[in-house]
Structure formats: structure tokens, C-alpha cells
Amino acid sequence: MFHGRRILLIIGGGIAAYKSLQLIREFQKKGATVVPVMTRGAAEFVTPLSVAALSKNKVFKDLFDLNDESEMGHIELSRSSDLIVVAPATANLMAKMAFGVASDLASTLLLATDTPVLIAPAMNVRMWEHPATQNNVKILMKNGIHFSGPEEGDMACGEFGFGRMSEPEAIVKAASEILINGPLRNKHILITSGPTHEPIDPVRYIANRSSGNQGSAIANALIALGAKVTFISGPSISEMPKNCHIIKVETAIEMLKAVKSAIPCDVAIFSAAVSDWRVENQNINKIKKNGLNDGLKINFVENPDILKTISNLEHNRPKLVIGFAAETDNLLKNATEKRNSKGCDWILLNDVSPETGIMGGEENQITLISSSENEEWPRMSKSAVANQLAKKIVDLGI
Ligand code: C5P
Fold this sequence. Notes:
By secondary structure, the protein is an alpha/beta fold. It has two domains: 6-180, 3-Layer(aba) Sandwich (Rossmann fold), CATH 3.40.50.1950; 188-396, CoaB-like (Rossmann fold, 3-Layer(aba) Sandwich). It is globular. 44% of the residues are buried. 35% of the residues lie in helices and 23% in strands. The protein is built from 15 helices and 21 strands.
């Protein structure tokens, strides 16, 4: 798969650096040559000797190593590869990349390069969630940096959450998608997915039956074609897509905020089943049964319509905005009206009457409504729907 390809692997200083040894092997198995660069921190976690032995290459460490400069200057080193992979990418290295700091060999190479860069972030969950890091993520995405992970899970520091480095296999897959030059390469696509939860009190919420399966399938199909995906998901039971930027939210208001933070993008796909209403005055404490003689009365207020808001943006409106219409009656008429009232380009209509088994199920049946046509697709799996949609997007030549 990578025969004749040269990968410059920058190993950052984090506990996940041990996985970079496995990563070297995975790249080599696929035929790539790996040229390793280690930061000073990385050498605290894995020895340069192991990296040199596995990669069968000299390990580059120091910017001011005269030998290296005479053999191969840093500009040459950064440009002679087909892809630069940073794994683990620490918060510090990401901050340097975002702000163009060139303070050591690794950061200088990253500033001097014009080859594609793939980073696999790895850090403590609080560091990942910190606004400083999240701002850097946005800058890096805008600058065209590709991401693999981070994943959610148990961490070396004993905490749980986002920040685990992607497994070597996932990083290799992300690298192949970049090198394979998919038709959506360098396109940023935003996807909302899953239900939203609207709290009533600290323990209860209003939700819906959306599984998030269709949104995850769409993300996977687009990532496979090279798109940079920002996946904004409500509390969903579906497996999260890999190799994209995931933002988890709970409520419609949080989802809108996340969507706005992810713009600009080329295409926005709103597959989330957003709650149309939220509870007006959420109770701070759990509501007690005692004393509710007239039963429990809840006032609802309307949630912001995310699809409509983005469809009507004056600045930075995505070139293609796609919404879903989950209908149970008057399907075509309701969906066509929905397309007009929301101002989006395409509506994917699906019949969610309980007897169809579509909501929360494995299959879907879509009619694509655009300004010029109603295109009925046969009933198929949600991943086949995702591939069909991805193909339509590619055909549009966005
Ligand atoms: O109005 P309705 O909920 O039927 O519209 C469905 C479409 O609008 C879906 O694409 C959904 O993701 C989007 N939507 C939204 N924000 C809302 C309600 C729906 O983005 N508050």
C-alpha cells in the first residue's frame, strides 16, 4: 500500500510514545520507509536505540547537529517525505504547530514543511478539553493538518475520557487515506449526529430514539474519501467514527455552539435528531413527587433550529447544506416544505413511522430532495446510504 513512500515520523514526549514503536512496524509492513525524529521528551519514554533499530534508520534529534545539517538540512528532511506523522502529538507540540514556534528540530521541521501532516494527539483529558488546546485544534484544522483521534478511554494517569492516542492501525489507516488522495481530500465536512438530551432536572431528561447510526456511517464514508470531518454528536449509542475531530454535546444549545465553532466548512450535514423543545426552567434539584397535587407540569420553549441558522448564514455559509426530514405522513409535501423553510440545499427524506423500523434500526430509505429533483433511493443499509450520499457530494465537485 505504501510501497516507495517515505514517512517522517515525529515522536513527541508522552507516555503513548511506546506505541510509536508498533507504528513504525505497521508502516513498514505496508512497505513504507520510516525516517524517525524524536523530541527531547520522547527520548525519556523510548530509547533512540530502539527507534533506530526498528526503523533501520538514523534517528534525528537535534536541530544543531552539524552532521545532520551537512548530510541533510532540516528543510530537505521536512520535504523529502510523502507524509509527516506526529505520534504522539503532545499539547505542547500542537501549540507550537498552531503558533509557528520553531524551537527544536521537530517543530522546525513542521514549520518548514509543505508535505501533508497527520497528527495523533495524546494527552490527559483535561489538557485535551482545555480551551487553549481546543483553540489550537481549530487553528490546526484550518491550516489543513489531518487528525487521527484522540480516542476515548482509560488513560495512563488514571482518568477516563478523550486524550488516548489512536491505535497504530488507525493511524496507518488515516495515513493511507491521505496518501491515497481521496476525491474529498482537503474538504472540511461538518456532521451533526445522534439525539440531544434536554434536562428536566439533574437526573431526568427529554430524549428521542435516534441511534446516531446514520450520522456515524456518513462520517465513515466521507473520511474514507479523504474529507476532514468534524463530528458533533449528542449522547449516542453508535460507535464513534475514527480519524476525525469529535465534539460530544448533550443539548441543542450546546450543539449549535459546537457547530458555530467548527465553521467554516465546505459541506454541513445535519443528521442529528435535535429536540425541538427544551424545558423552560430546569430544576436545579431533583423534582420530588410529594406536594405535586396537580401532577407535574413542565413548560417547554423552542430550541434554536441549527440547520436553519446555518442555512441562512450571510458569511461563511457552507457551499452545501444538507438536512434530514424524518416524517411519518405526507412525506414528500412535508419534506419539500421543510427544505424551503429551512433554506438548505438538499433534504434527505425518510419515513420514520414505527412499522418501517428505520429510527434506531440498521436500514434507511431515502428520497433526496434538491431544487431540481426528487430522487428516490431503494431501501438499503445505513452505510450504503452514506456511500450513496458521499458519491453525490463528490459528483457535485464541491
Ligand atoms: O424541523 P425538523 O426537526 O423536522 O428538521 C429536521 C432537520 O433539521 C434535521 O436535519 C435536523 O438535524 C435539523 N434540526 C436542527 N435543529 C433543530 C431541529 C432540527 O438542526 N432544532
